[in-house]
Amino acid sequence: MPAAPARTTQDGPHRVTVLGSFTLTAHGATIPLGVDARRLVAYLAVHPRPQRRGALAADLWPGMAVGAAMRLLDDAVLAVAVPGLLVTDDRGALALGADVEVDLTAAMQLVRTLPDVAADARPDLSLLAADILPGWTAAWIVVERERFRQLRLHAIEERSVRLTAAVRIDEAVALARSAVRSAPSRDSARRVLIEALLAQGDIAGAVAEYDEYQELLRSSVGAAPAFSLDGLLLPTPAWPVMRARSVMPRSAVQLPGLRSVRASGTGRRLVAGGSLPGSAR
Predict the structure, then answer these.
(1) What distances in angstroms separate CA 208 from CA 22, 111, 230, 268, one per listed residue?
(2) Sign of CA dihedral 230, 234, 237, 240
(3) 10 or 224: whose pLDDT is higher?
(4) Residue 243 has pLDDT above 70, yes or no
(5) CATH architecture of 7-99
(6) Where are the chain's structural domains?
(7) Is the pLDDT of residue 84 over 70?
(8) Could you give the angle at which helices 139-165 and 35-46 cross, rounded to 10 degrees?
(9) 102-271: in CATH 3.40.1390.10
(10) What is the tens place of the pLDDT at every residue in 129-181?
(11) Cα–Cα separations (whole angstroms), residue 279 to 141, 235, 263, 276
């Protein structure tokens, strides 16, 4: 039976994607790979440094005899059959070619540079929307997936804080919600979302978000949130704490009793008890 033809995409260099799903494109075409070849290319995309063959074979085929694992590795290398995709250094270690684009590499670069991007800029954050190869269960991927997950969520949270401080509240709320969807039990993501909702004037939404988070923790791990909602909704004579269930108008964020707190290195966070950046105190 003849092999299925490669699916044509936009012209470009070799490209490997591992965020959300695995794909390999070469010279404008999507290249199908067998299971072992796909695992090999994905491993090298996630581990950009040259990999010694023995350690690579042991990670890809754990529990298998060394000789058998090495033979499977040799077969996988031959099965890739994409000129320039794989390279070998003078010690025989394997890596992807220097001109191969990897979405994870670009995502890591974004994580490193995002703190320096101005709050009024609109960088493409789509690379921070997905985990590394969700659904893949090999031991070698679990650690790298969790490491990148923590980095991308932290970057999203910090960006949301900066957007809130820049009074781009709708964008801050949307970004914080994406972090909560990725990690519903993550304390910092919930707090950033609640602070953005307070800055938006959606007091009822902030209270509901806190109540939902509190119930999630109580039912799953028997714990309470690390932060207190009352610490964000500080009561004052002008504005006592009211757990209203109706959405407050946006103007509510300027009511007396709002205060601002400075997040380390990221600008101001808005919470109940302060004012908008630049407004009169």
Answers:
(1) 37, 31, 13, 23
(2) negative
(3) 224
(4) no
(5) Orthogonal Bundle (1.10)
(6) 7-99, 102-271
(7) yes
(8) 50
(9) no
(10) 999 999 999 999 999 999 999 999 999 999 999 999 999 999 999 999 999 99
(11) 48, 20, 18, 5
In b/e form, how buried is each residue of 223-262, taking b as 16+ CB within 10 angstroms? eebebebeebbbeeeebebeeeeeebeeebbebebbebee
Strands 29-30 vs 86-88: parallel, antiparallel or unpaired: unpaired
Residue type, 257: G
The token pair at 14 is: 């070799």
Phi and psi for 16 in degrees, rounded to 5? Answer: -120, 130
Assigned token pair, 183 = 């990690």
- Which residues contact residue 218 at a Cβ distance below 8 angstroms, ignoring those fewer than 6 apart? 224
Distance of alpha carbon 268 from alpha carbon 264, whole angstroms: 9
Whole-angstrom Cα distance, residue 46 to residue 141? 8
Within 10 angstroms of residue 6's Cβ, the number of other Cβ atoms is 15
Sign of CA dihedral 12, 13, 14, 16: negative
Using the structure block, give the residue that is written with the tokens 């939404």.
205
Written as one string, the DSSP assignment of 110-145 is HHHHGGGS-TT-----GGGSS-BSTT---HHHHHHH
What is the dihedral angle through the alpha carbons of 114, 119, 124, 129, rounded to the nearest 10 degrees?
70
| Phi, psi for residue 25 in degrees, rounded to 5 | -120, 145
